[in-house]
Amino acid sequence: MTDYTPLHLDWPGCLNVRDLGGLPLSGGGTVRERALVRSDSPSFLTDDGVAAATAYRLARIIDLRRPWENEEWPSLLADHPGYLSLPVQQPDDPEEGPWVHLYTGLLDRHPDLFARAVAALADAPEGPVLVHCVAGKDRTGLVVALALSLVGADADALADDYELTNERLAPRYAKLPEDREIPAGREIPPTRHVIVAALEHLRARHGSVEAYLTRGGLTPGHVRALRARLVG
User: Fold this and answer.
1) Spacing of C-alpha 22 from chain mean position
2) 179 within domain boundaries
3) Do 33 and 22 touch, CB atoms closer than 8 A?
4) Is 2 contained in some domain?
5) What CA–CA distance (Å, rounded) separates 231 from 64?
6) InterPro entries of this UniProt entry (predicted)?
7) What total of structural domains would you count in the chain?
8) Over the chain, what HEC string results?
9) Report field, pTM of the whole predicted structure over 0.85
10) Fewer C-beta within 10 Å: the chain N or C terminus?
11) Is residue 180 assigned to a domain?
12) Sheet strands side by side (includes 129-132)
């Protein structure tokens, strides 16, 4: 565990919005503020929430949800000139059981989609970039973890940030019906070991996160741009 203090943003309607500025790097220093923001879906935003998100002057919005999710719960920020729909799943992807299997399955099947999302963060215009899915937990957690790993984020701080989502979304989960269907092995919200295991899986199979993303099409130029954006 680290003493990193997350920078939560008040965008009414969303519960899980934070600027990752201040997150420590393993070699010293921190991630820049107003460079990378993660959140749950902007479809939850109230009018005041839309105003708050707009006031943050986002340079790009990376929506990781699938097309049917966009249709059912349209993003209230979709008219933003920097909005991009970049799903990291295909419609026929299986819903694996335990959380680690879900994550490693997605990563193994779609290095191109994850590399595309990280590249969109790297080459965005100057300003904050928002990455989100529905909860801002799983798909967002993976893309953010890949990006932060590339710039040398402290592993404990990265895991702490990932797990924080459970606390932020607890009020919403408490309102869900008790009889909702949950895939086997995924009854408990994922804890920090899940993102740690997913990254270890990539390193064991590919040698490094960078090698995995390179296989998907990320270029050295993207890596340099990402480090300049997030580290300065």
Assistant:
1) 17
2) no
3) yes
4) no
5) 24
6) Prot-tyrosine_phosphatase-like (IPR029021), Tyr/Ser_Pase_IphP-type (IPR026893), Tyr_Pase_AS (IPR016130), Tyr_Pase_dom (IPR000387)
7) 1
8) CCCCCCEECCCCCCCCCEECCCCEECCCCECCCCCEEEECCHHHCCHHHHHHHHHCCCCEEEECCCHHHHHHCCCCCCCCCCEEECCCCCCCCCCCCCHHHHHHHHHHHCHHHHHHHHHHHHCCCCCCEEEECCCCCCHHHHHHHHHHHHCCECHHHHHHHHHHHHHHHHHHHCCCCCCCCCCCCCCCCCCHHHHHHHHHHHHHHHCCHHHHHHHCCCCHHHHHHHHHHHCC
9) yes
10) N
11) no
12) 7-8, 18-19, 36-39, 129-132, 60-63, 83-85
For 113-129, write each residue's pLDDT tens digit: 999 999 999 999 999 99
Token pair for residue 86?
């970049």
pLDDT digits (tens, 9 = 90+) for 74-84: 999 999 999 99
Domain assignment of residue 207, yes or no:
yes
CATH number of the domain to which 89 belongs = 3.90.190.10
**Distance, CA of 120 to CA of 114 (rounded, Å):** 10
